[in-house]
Specification:
It is a single chain. A hairpin with a 5-residue loop joins strand 1 and strand 2. It contains 18 helices and 3 strands.
Length: about 475
């Protein structure tokens, strides 16, 4: 009898454990987004949840492949620009040694690329090819950086990137500063080592300096990824989230470097098959993994910064048309009220923060209102985000006017003979719809009672951008 009772208790414990595990799984996957508490455990679950969901997005995998191809295309022009600047300052040899130090796993690839660079620079300094070569070089680099920015903006949900002028100026500064920073980093290391070795009193600092020099590549990699996550997306990225992602991705990058240095030993086995191209498989794998790490860091930064704005995400996917229409009118009324009272217009993030509306809903609603010509964008002083205000006279914007504009969005009348075949039925439904909209014309959106909430506005409007 005792044995039977023990078996029954074990079975009950197993069933209870399964139920508990299923409940935890469902909470971590779905129910956590309906959680309003702000504890570190909830925030961690939300961050991991959103990061995994975003990274498993097939578009992100395809973008890493596209960036690998763009990088291969831009390797020689990028190195040519860097070494052209380096030769101008007289430190091309130092740049070459620094590249081999930073990318020890790609020694063969770098040697081949540098031979192409020498040929490229020799040809580009002669005759007509000088102008064509410079244009092609700049176009290749700007194209690569533009693709990187587009991939980052895709993660951040930003539809509008930098202007052509901003791309040319920002990217040119990056490629000019890169060789200078590399040389400065190397110069500091050499300077510290030389001082310690030349001064007998400082010999006790030798182990400390050696440790610092060993750690320096990790620190520089962390700072590089942090700066990448902050500066490339055309969005406002907070330093603390970018720095955490930079540490994780920089460490992962250094680990992959160590693995690929060890893996180069086995590349020699493929010499009989690939000949002088034996380094290509390893280079492609290295580039692919590097871009995956980088995009993972962008996703992690985005997720950790926006976890609170993604509450009720599963409900948003199944939102009803009625509820979406109600939210649309409320958001529009908020924007019109601020305009009517001559207050600084809100950005999307500020609307979400002030009224606790999920950012995905705000993005969708505001984008539709802009596409329909009801709202226009304004450029903020920091030029990293847009604020929104009415595009037409607010006295014209009735509830019926809004519904008519939104209803006309998108393509229509593209099915052959559809309108002729169902003309009678469509006339009835359109008449009923128009009567409903006519009743709503009696209510102007500016007259809808809305309590404006004040939050800290961190931007100033510098110009009006007509849609």
């Amino acid at each position: 009898m005792n044995i039977v009772q023990e078996k029954q208790s074990i079975q009950k414990w197993i069933i209870a454990f399964k139920i508990k595990a299923i409940n935890i799984y469902e909470y971590c996957i779905c129910d956590v987004w309906n959680e309003t508490k702000s504890t570190w455990i909830v925030n961690l679950i939300k961050t991991i949840n959103l990061s995994v969901r975003s990274f498993l997005d097939k578009n992100l995998q395809l973008k890493s492949c596209a960036l690998t191809y763009s990088t291969l295309l831009a390797i020689v022009p990028a190195l040519a620009l860097i070494f052209a600047i380096g030769r101008g300052f007289g430190f091309s040899k130092l740049l070459q040694s620094e590249l081999f130090k930073y990318l020890p796993s790609q020694t063969e690839a770098l040697k081949t690329a540098l031979s192409f660079v020498d040929s490229y620079l020799a040809q580009s300094s002669q005759g007509l090819f000088l102008g064509i070569g410079i244009v092609f070089l700049l176009w290749t680099l700007i194209s690569l950086m533009s693709n990187v920015e587009d991939a980052f903006n895709h993660v951040w949900g930003v539809k509008k990137g930098r202007s052509i002028y901003r791309k040319i100026t920002d990217y040119t500064v990056i490629f000019i500063m890169l060789p200078i920073l590399m040389v400065c980093a190397s110069g500091i290391s050499i300077f510290m080592s030389a001082i310690v070795e030349s001064t007998e009193r400082l010999n006790f600092l030798t182990p400390v300096v050696a440790t610092i020099l060993d750690i320096a590549p990790f620190v520089l990699t962390w700072l590089f990824f942090t700066g990448t996550f902050m500066l490339i997306p055309y969005a406002k990225v907070k330093f603390k989230y970018a720095f955490i992602s930079g540490i994780l991705c920089g460490t992962a990058f250094q680990i992959i470097q160590l693995l690929f240095v060890a893996g180069q030993i086995y590349v020699s086995k493929y010499n009989a098959i690939y000949g002088s191209f034996a380094f290509l498989p390893l280079l492609l794998i290295w580039l692919q993994l590097t871009w995956l790490i980088c995009l993972s860091g962008v996703v992690l930064t985005y997720s950790s910064q926006n976890i609170f704005q993604f509450n009720f995400s599963d409900n948003i996917d199944e939102i009803s048309q009625r509820y979406q229409d109600e939210i649309t009118i409320i958001i529009l009324a908020i924007i019109i009220k601020r305009f009517e009272k001559a207050q600084i217009p809100y950005t999307k993030a500020e609307i979400s923060e002030a009224y606790s509306i999920p950012i995905r809903l705000v993005n969708s609603v505001v984008d539709r209102l802009c596409d329909s010509g009801i709202l226009s964008t304004t450029i903020t002083k920091n030029d990293t985000e847009y604020a929104f205000q009415p595009a037409v006279d607010i006295n014209m914007i009735t509830v019926g006017y809004v519904y008519r504009k939104l209803r006309s969005l998108g393509k229509s009348n593209f099915i052959p003979r559809f309108s002729n075949e169902f003309e009678a039925a469509l006339q009835i439904t359109n008449n009923l719809t128009e009567k409903a909209y006519s009743l709503r014309d009696c209510v102007e959106v500016k007259d809808i009672p809305i309590e404006l909430k004040e939050i800290k506005i961190s931007h100033k409007i510098i110009r009006f951008n007509k849609k």
